[in-house]
């Protein structure tokens, strides 16, 4: 069945995600704050562009956002020209940004008051996952809204799961980011140690990645970590945004997160080294500098 879909935020992630929805045959209207990106998208995929999030949302069955942080999300949703002004009763609004669970619950309630559904649906898989249409999507919200939206989310994902009530998607993404932060620091220490010990790191990683030390980060990042190449995806600035959300939520629910806090402070040092846009495996640069 063809649906009318609005997609707001054509960044590194949103641009290809909206593309996959269009390629699946849905009628997509895009909005992007920087108009040139929307014009480029229109040139590449079938669809229309709107001048505001509100205009994009008009008559849509499904509305997607994929923007930066809580403030950005508030602006495109509840702001002056936000999508809430035009979202029709019975539609489902799906937010793919990584933001706090609090704002997600706030939007869920605001949507409910207006007669439409809201799902927090953060994504994992990075730029390559978005470009390949193989993202992992962790969702919070009501089951009936999830059932309606699942076929559209499927267009850009390989795994989509309703975790629980509103906010659960964002909480799951926090678990995801905490797993990555601690692991990347451990991997950085190990790779740096191996280099300093004079080992052939290709041989080392070829061998130990078949055993208990294996991880996605090891498989996909060790080569570039050895070579000091850090332009392969998720930026340090984004990671710090996410770890701040994790640390604040951990304070709220009483979870000690000492490793997450220390890794966050290490990423702050990487930012001071000029690494704001380096990818999150750049924790090793800090160790190499200290030698
Ligand atoms: P990005 O390339 O920086 O794109 C951000 C998008 O949001 C752009 O379209 C930007 O518009 C728009 N935007 C930001 N603030 C806005 C505002 N106040 N009003 C209107 N539009 C606004 O970011 P991204 O990498 O696509 O990431 C998007 C979200 O996905 C973030 O929450 C990020 O944490 C999450 N995420 C990213 C990755 C990754 O690997 N990149 C992986 C998983 C999750 P302009 O074009 O005008 O700037």
CATH topology tier name of the largest domain: Rossmann fold
Task: Provide the residue-averaged pLDDT.
Answer: 97
List how many beta strands DSSP finds. 9
Query: Using only CA atoms, what is the Rg?
Result: 20 Å
* Overall 3D shape: globular
Taking the sheet with the most strands, its summary is:
6 strands, parallel
Which strand-content bin applies to the residues?
A: 5-15%
Secondary structural class? alpha/beta
Order of helices and strands: EHEHEHEHEHEEHEHEHHHHHH
Ligands in the model, by name, code or SMILES, are: NADP nicotinamide-adenine-dinucleotide phosphate
**How are the strands of the biggest sheet laid out side by side?**
3-2-1-4-5-6
Report how far apart the termini are: 59 Å
**Unreliable stretches, pLDDT < 50, 5 or more residues?**
none
Indicate the CATH class of the largest domain.
Alpha Beta
The overall number of domains is 2
Number of H/I helices: 13
Query: Which range best describes the helical content: under 10%, 10-25%, 25-40%, 40-55%, 55-70% or over 70%?
Result: 40-55%
CATH-defined architecture of the largest domain: 3-Layer(aba) Sandwich
Superfamily at the CATH H level of the largest domain?
Answer: NAD(P)-binding Rossmann-like Domain
